[in-house]
Amino acid sequence: MSKERKELQRARMFRYFLDAAAEVIEEDGIEHMTIRKIADRAGFTASTAYNYFKDLSHLKFFTAMRFTSAYLKELPSYMELGNNIVEKWLYSWECFCKHSFEQPEIYSVIFMDNLGSSPQKLFDDYYALHTQDLTGVPEELHSILMEYDFSKRSALYIQDAVTEGFIKEENVPLIADITLMVWKGMMNTYMNNRRGYSKDEAISRTLQLVTECVLNVVEPERRKDITFKR
Questions:
Q1: Which superfamily does CATH assign the domain made up of 3-53 to?
Q2: Which residues of 133-145 are buried (b: 16+ CB within 10 A; e: fewer)?
Q3: What are the residue boundaries of the structural domains of the chain, listed by start?
């Protein structure tokens, strides 16, 4: 069998298993996924599934990525609301919070769970087979969205705020790391019901903290130009 035919077969088998896994998630929730349940639904054996996926976490990750399509579709329209790079970045956070707190188990699998292998490689493998997921997303965002490390993703985007005079270069990695930790902390709090936050309360509080973190590093003379409010 030629290399091209092998790749086509691999892509087809991936699709069979991911379709079956997506149905399991929609019916039972991602926490109830098992390799056997998915293989049975796809019409194959569990051993066949392991020929294409290293383990359950690998399959969960690939399937969870499918459920981020609504976020990717809405992201450009949210960012268009901003008048400068900092506002666009904050609106992108609003979009991310909206979708991640609506589907916390999905986004936890992608950005918080132990995947047992290189997350970036899984990201690359997924988008190699699903380039259509980025259809409609501005070209300049592709390389950012294909970066698995969320802190690095934020830093790549907010970097332009240095050129615009909003943030000093040395504060870019700091604000990228802090805002990621804010989201992770709130997601953990929300999922474990530690403070009894509703979804909307979790979103609002996360955005409040993210905005305050950003404003603390924005140059004083440029703060008046930030009108983002949540």
A1: Homeodomain-like (1.10.10.60)
A2: bbeeeeeebeebb
A3: 3-53, 68-225
- Say whether pLDDT at 37 is over 70: yes
pTM as predicted: 0.88
- Which tops the pLDDT comparison, 91 or 130? 91
Tell me the average pLDDT across 62-89: 92
Mean pLDDT across 135-145: 81
Amino acid at 135: T
Using alpha carbons, select from 113, 115, 21 the residue that is nearest to residue 66.
21
The DSSP string of the chain is --HHHHHHHHHHHHHHHHHHHHHHHHHH-GGG--HHHHHHHHTS-HHHHTTT-SSHHHHHHHHHHHTTHHHHHHHHHHHTT-SSHHHHHHHHHHHHHHHHHHSHHHHHHHHTS--SS-HHHHHHHHHHH-GGGGTTS-HHHHHHHT---HHHHHHHHHTHHHHTTSB-GGGHHHHHHHHHHHHHHHHHHHHTTSS---HHHHHHHHHHHHHHHHHHHB-GGGGGG-----
Q: What architecture (CATH level 2) is domain 68-225?
A: Orthogonal Bundle (1.10)
Distance CA 163, CA 87 (A): 15
DSSP 3-state assignment of 67?
coil
Contact of 130 with 68, CB cutoff 8 Å = no
